[in-house]
């Protein structure tokens, strides 16, 4: 039994209320002196507690960075029991998920890190993954029994449920096809779905997401400042990265369940209409070496982006880059 985990479970359950030292000592079967020792250990890790002789301890502030044990406490309180792996620093959470899968680890599971030194986005592009403001770098591994044709809908569906979760947390965002979560024209989170295929069958899927949490705009490089934002910049307040990441993991497990059982199909069209950032905008899409411009009218049943071109024809885009046309005026 991890004493720090048990103690943090009590504080998570208590919220903003005090937890008596006697309750903590009884839970662990140790002395009050031992409880004080462990509270001091948590203080050294960035927790701030208010102590009262008659009332016990109250958690005033948690660490700004992701904290392994606190996230486990939040996950347990949320009823999430699936395996969870945490790293202060790693090459890539998607890569670690692949290594765990290769070693035979059972699905589903989650991998979370404070910092990535070799984070990547679509087409192998480098993804800036610094440990600023409790940013979240998360990958979740699944072994779905589904066809390859459903994969594009999978990324869209999971992205839409990410938008739902952000909005429930009072962070207004939309989804830019096919894998960006944006607010006020700037990216706050990015998604990378990777799959392993064997003999034309889907072996496993790794769903990765990076979230800019409480990053100070001054810490965003000048190269990215015009393109990127953070949760705190959107909401004008700091949010618990630990609570946010635990809630995100729970939401993604629920989203995956709905995708596997097929119930997502009834919700996807209305959710896309609600969260579609590009709808009605004039964009230019890449199809191989060809550029196609048109007004976005939504997506089809397979998740292809639909463009109405100047001559009235409809084009379907199933992959590639999409950008706002230069002559577009918001």
Q: Can you describe this structure?
A:
- The protein has 330 residues and is an alpha+beta fold.
- It has nine helices and 14 strands.
- It has helices at 3-14, 21-28, 32-44, 68-77, 93-102, 151-168, 231-235, 241-261, 264-275; strands spanning 48-52, 56-61, 84-90, 109-116, 136-142, 174-176, 180-183, 186-198, 201-211, 282-287, 290-299, 305-308, 314-317, 322-324.
- The protein has a seven-stranded mixed sheet with strand order 3-4-5-9-8-7-6, sandwiched between helices.
- A hairpin with a 2-residue loop joins strand 7 (180-183) and strand 8.
- Helix 4 packs across helix 8 (241-261) and helix 6 (151-168) crosses helix 9 (264-275).
- The longest helix is centred in the C-terminal third of the chain and has 21 residues, at 241-261.
- It is elongated.
- Mean pLDDT comes to 89
Main sheet specs = 7 strands, mixed
How many helices does DSSP assign?
A: 9
Beta-strand portion reads 25-35%
> Total number of β-strand segments?
14
> Structural class, please?
alpha+beta
Helical proportion? Answer: 25-40%
What distance separates the N and C termini? 56 Å
Q: Which assembly state applies to the chains in this document?
A: single chain
User: Any low-confidence stretches, pLDDT <50, length ≥5?
Assistant: none
Overall geometry comes to: elongated
Write down the Rg.
22 Å
Q: How are helices and strands ordered from N to C? A: HHHEEHEHEEHEEEEHHHEEEEE
Give the strand line-up of the largest sheet: 3-4-5-9-8-7-6
């Amino acid at each position: 039994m991890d004493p720090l985990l048990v103690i943090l479970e009590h504080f998570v359950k208590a919220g903003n209320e005090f937890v008596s030292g006697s309750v903590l000592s009884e839970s662990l079967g140790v002395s009050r002196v031992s409880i004080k020792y462990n509270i001091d250990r948590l203080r050294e890790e960035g927790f701030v507690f208010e102590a009262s002789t008659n009332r016990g301890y109250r958690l005033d502030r948690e660490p700004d960075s992701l904290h392994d044990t606190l996230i486990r406490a939040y996950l347990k309180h949320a009823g999430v029991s699936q395996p969870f792996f945490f790293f202060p620093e790693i090459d890539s959470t998607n890569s670690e998920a692949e290594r765990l899968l290769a070693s035979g680890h059972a699905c589903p599971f989650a991998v979370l890190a404070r910092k990535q030194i070799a984070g990547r986005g679509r087409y192998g592009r480098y993804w800036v993954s610094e440990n600023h403001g409790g940013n979240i770098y998360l990958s979740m591994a699944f072994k779905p029994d589904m066809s390859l044709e459903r994969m594009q809908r999978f990324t869209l569906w999971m992205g839409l449920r990410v938008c739902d979760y952000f909005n429930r947390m009072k962070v207004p965002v939309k989804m830019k096809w096919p894998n960006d979560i944006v607010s006020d024209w700037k990216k706050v989170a990015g998604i990378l779905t990777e799959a392993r295929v064997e003999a034309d069958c889907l072996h496993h899927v790794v769903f990765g997401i990076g979230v800019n949490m409480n990053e100070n705009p001054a810490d965003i490089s000048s190269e990215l400042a015009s393109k990127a934002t953070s949760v705190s910049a959107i909401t004008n307040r700091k949010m618990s990265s630990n609570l946010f990441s635990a809630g995100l993991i729970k939401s993604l497990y629920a989203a995956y369940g709905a995708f596997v059982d097929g119930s997502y199909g009834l919700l996807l069209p209305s959710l896309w209409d609600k969260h579609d950032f590009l709808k009605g905008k004039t964009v230019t899409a890449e199809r191989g070496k060809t550029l196609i411009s048109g007004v976005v009218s939504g997506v089809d049943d397979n998740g292809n982006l639909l463009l109405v071109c100047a001559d009235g024809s409809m084009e379907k885009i199933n992959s590639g880059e999409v950008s706002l046309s230069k002559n577009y005026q918001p």
